[in-house]
Inverse folding.
């Protein structure tokens, strides 16, 4: 009746139980507060069922912040474990729990922090920048959001009932096969990503169509803001890359549920096929995240240099070059799998080639600052933080792209430092910059500048303290994913732990900034154009008019898809059928109703 | 100094060449990095809004020649780096024989959950979590697995290669100094991953011969049953086997072509 689910799924070790209870407690507090303030109706009408892209954008960013807290807790647990694990002290995490933590950290930060943050900003700004009232398919937009929420809920649910994957964030087989991972952890991983992934793909199509067809009449392609261009590029990548992810995870689930042998050790299964496929999605994914961040900086640098963007055409060409190149570099994630020298050398050189358009972008930003009048407001500070760290990360990336060097650096903490360098210094700083830049537009009041500056300095100092030691540790020969480390690595791991604490302080200032700014919102009205921005979003009121249209169907699809996912994880087949048929029924029923827009 | 351990402390030809390659590539990149960092800080400081003496040209947004230069500089650097990559990748191809004299020695490596089995086919011995070899001779590691994917890595001797079931990957390394080097798995393979470490012991030719003779004097036979016990999930201490089933390695590689 309940598949693999029984009471034992709720019983965990002491540390896991704390996590379990915090999730339950968090939900109870939120539900309690909403009930106490009788806010359910307001929340339901104004946000949960809204079809307005800006409302959906706000919800995406809220989701991203909640998951950032979760992913950060995972990071602090890992840093603490590695910092206190010395001599007789074996730390507080068991090997299996540590593996679940680093897996969850990676999955959450990419899929449920970076992606929703990106789609949040896109939802808020792209329609405004092209002069459109909304996106092409507002209902699908709401549905995409709810499918993303389902993925996030499933991941957190794994803390309460069952377990999460202990495989690393890409779940390489054969470790992720039934033979080595018999529990439901990998199934949580698969179905959370499958459901969220469908949402992402639909969003990709939605924004591609929006940008292609809904621009103001006199906004030709070469008049689009660079942010719109980079989103356009990222959405092309989403449309080409995400079906690969869905297919690959689909094959893995067939292996696990139906006894197939795509990636098993025996009967002709090939783990190497999985590694190729997952990175054929995984590499474009990196550019899906970074391209919009580049776009955000291309908005911010001219605004705060009080000057036009230098080299618009170059920026467009560079963006499209990155879109193209990002599909022919995936092998650089596994030069060490034994491919021949020709193959490795080709993918190495293609990878370096991406440094050319990226370098051009850096030069164009620099020469936008040249002969400008630069105002160092928080968005510009985030840009400076990005530029100084990203150039370093780019250089270590080129180093890793040389196969002969990668043989030594692969899987070491040098690699870990490199991609955090790109994802924190590049993607996250970019999204933070976009958030503080466009916040006044969406909410109509300014964020507290001083607390924003504190947050920035904590993040940049914390970043350097947390990740420069990892570069050195990698060179010393320390591999990633160790719950237990040799004593010679210990001093630098303590430094990295201190860095994580400084980042935590930065996050505290960000929360404080939001609270204080909301508290003092009446004293700090934004006006229509607080930064003297030149693009269309600054021509409308702050906040811009919201579209009152709403639909309950997005939430319904989310709930049913969530039941389907939960049922697939625990193999409760009747419930899976109800969930899937329910989703289709809602969509079919909706197609018979008349809507002004679909 | 602990900082000098690992990749920065190469003890063999491969690790030496890989480190040299890293230094060359880094030096090439510094050609761009240094001016870029100088420009970043100089522009940010000089063109700050407070500095009204600096020239201000708000509408300057396009200059063909300048843009050509931005495209050209990274392009040229990548051209040089690309050439370096092509030649070095072929030179450092782990399947290639090494440019040192001395008869190559073969060591068969099996990644087990969570320990390393080393088989010396010519010497008919085997070891667990310990591998010994003479210095100044190319050591051809032939690597497979009877476990989730692992990566075979001895940082001081040279770069890694994956260990996978049902197939054999190759890595040729050499050491030019006697000594004990840390080897490990670099690819996460489950609960006991952190303990998948081994000592790689480089010794003189005479010492190695003596060691092999001593090994033969013991009587631990690694036959099928003993192997199956060893292959069960769990960590292990260092172990020695004075005799092995001659087809053991091939059997391990081949068994995955059939149903479990």
């Amino acid at each position: 009746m309940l598949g693999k689910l029984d009471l034992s799924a709720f019983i965990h070790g002491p540390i896991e139980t704390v996590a379990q209870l915090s999730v339950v407690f968090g939900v109870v507090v939120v539900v309690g507060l909403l009930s106490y303030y009788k806010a359910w109706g307001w929340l339901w009408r104004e946000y949960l069922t809204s079809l307005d892209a800006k409302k959906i954008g706000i919800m995406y960013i809220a989701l991203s912040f909640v998951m950032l807290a979760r992913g950060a807790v995972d990071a602090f647990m890992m840093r603490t474990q590695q910092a206190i694990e010395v001599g007789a002290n074996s730390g507080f995490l068991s090997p299996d729990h540590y593996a679940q933590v680093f897996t969850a950290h990676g999955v959450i930060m990419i899929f449920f922090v970076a992606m929703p943050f990106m789609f949040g900003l896109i939802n808020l700004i792209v329609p405004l920048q092209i002069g459109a009232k909304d996106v092409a398919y507002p209902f699908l937009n709401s549905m995409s959001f709810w499918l993303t929420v389902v993925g996030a809920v499933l991941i957190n649910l794994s803390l309460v009932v069952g377990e999460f994957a202990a495989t690393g964030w890409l779940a390489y087989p054969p470790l992720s096969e039934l033979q080595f991972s018999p529990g439901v952890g990998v199934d949580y991983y698969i179905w959370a990503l499958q459901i969220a992934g469908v949402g992402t793909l639909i969003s990709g199509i939605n924004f591609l169509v929006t940008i292609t067809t809904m621009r103001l009449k006199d906004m030709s392609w070469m008049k689009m803001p660079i942010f719109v261009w980079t989103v356009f590029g990222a959405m092309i990548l989403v449309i080409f890359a995400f079906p690969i992810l869905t297919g690959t995870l689909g094959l893995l689930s067939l292996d696990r549920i139906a006894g197939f042998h795509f990636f098993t050790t025996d009967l002709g299964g090939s783990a190497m096929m999985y590694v190729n496929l997952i990175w054929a999605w995984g590499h474009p994914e990196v550019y899906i995240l970074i391209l919009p961040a580049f776009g955000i900086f291309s908005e911010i640098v001219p605004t705060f240099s009080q000057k036009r963007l230098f080299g618009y055409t170059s920026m467009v060409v560079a963006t499209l070059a990155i879109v193209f190149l990002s599909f022919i570099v995936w092998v650089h994630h596994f030069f060490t799998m034994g491919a021949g020298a020709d193959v490795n050398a080709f993918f190495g050189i293609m990878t370096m080639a991406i440094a050319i358009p990226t370098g051009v972008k850096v030069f164009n930003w620099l020469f936008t600052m040249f002969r400008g009048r630069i105002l160092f407001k928080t968005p510009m500070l985030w840009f400076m933080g990005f530029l100084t760290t990203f150039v370093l990360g780019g250089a270590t990336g080129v180093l890793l792209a040389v196969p002969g060097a990668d043989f030594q650096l692969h899987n070491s903490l040098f690699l870990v430092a490199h991609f955090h360098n790109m994802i924190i210094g590049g993607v996250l700083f970019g999204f933070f910059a976009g958030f503080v830049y466009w916040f006044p537009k969406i909410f109509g009041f300014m964020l507290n500048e001083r607390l924003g500056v504190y947050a920035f300095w904590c993040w940049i100092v914390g970043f350097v303290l947390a990740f420069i030691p990892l570069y050195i540790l990698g060179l010393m020969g320390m591999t990633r994913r160790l719950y237990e480390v040799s004593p010679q690595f210990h001093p630098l791991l303590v430094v990295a732990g201190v860095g994580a604490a400084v980042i935590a302080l930065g996050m505290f200032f960000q929360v404080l900034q939001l609270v204080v700014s909301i508290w003092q919102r009446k004293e700090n009205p934004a006006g229509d154009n607080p930064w003297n921005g030149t693009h269309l979003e600054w021509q409308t009121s702050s906040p811009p008019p919201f579209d009152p249209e709403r639909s309950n169907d997005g939430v319904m699809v989310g709930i049913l898809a969530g039941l389907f996912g939960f049922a697939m994880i625990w193999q409760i087949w009747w419930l899976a059928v109800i969930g899937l048929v329910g989703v289709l029924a809602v969509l079919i029923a909706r197609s018979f109703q008349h809507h002004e827009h679909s | 100094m602990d900082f000098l351990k690992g990749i920065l402390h190469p003890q063999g030809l491969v690790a030496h060449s890989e480190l040299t390659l890293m230094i060359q590539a880094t030096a090439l990149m510094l050609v761009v990095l240094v001016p870029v960092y100088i420009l970043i800080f100089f522009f940010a400081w000089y063109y700050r809004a407070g500095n009204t003496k600096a020239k201000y040209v708000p509408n300057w947004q396009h200059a063909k020649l300048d843009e050509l230069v931005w495209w050209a500089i990274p392009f040229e650097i990548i051209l040089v780096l690309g050439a370096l990559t092509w030649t070095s990748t072929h030179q450092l191809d782990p399947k290639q024989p090494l440019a040192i004299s001395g008869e190559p020695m073969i060591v068969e490596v099996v990644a087990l959950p969570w320990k390393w089995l080393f088989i010396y086919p010519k010497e008919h011995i085997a070891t667990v979590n310990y591998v010994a070899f003479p210095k100044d001779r190319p050591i051809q590691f032939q690597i497979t697995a009877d476990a989730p994917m692992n990566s075979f890595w001895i940082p001081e001797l040279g770069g890694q290669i994956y260990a996978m079931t049902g197939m054999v990957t190759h890595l040729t390394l050499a050491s030019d100094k006697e000594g004990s080097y840390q080897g490990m798995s670099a690819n996460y393979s489950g609960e006991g991953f952190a303990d998948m470490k081994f000592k790689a012991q480089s010794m003189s030719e005479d010492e190695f011969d003596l060691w092999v003779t001593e090994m033969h004097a013991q009587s631990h036979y690694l036959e099928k049953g003993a192997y199956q016990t060893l292959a069960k999930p769990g960590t292990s201490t260092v172990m020695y086997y004075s005799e092995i089933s001659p087809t053991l390695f091939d059997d391990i590689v081949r068994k995955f072509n059939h149903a479990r």
User: Anything to note?
Assistant: Chain A touches chain B through 93 residues (CB under 8 Å).
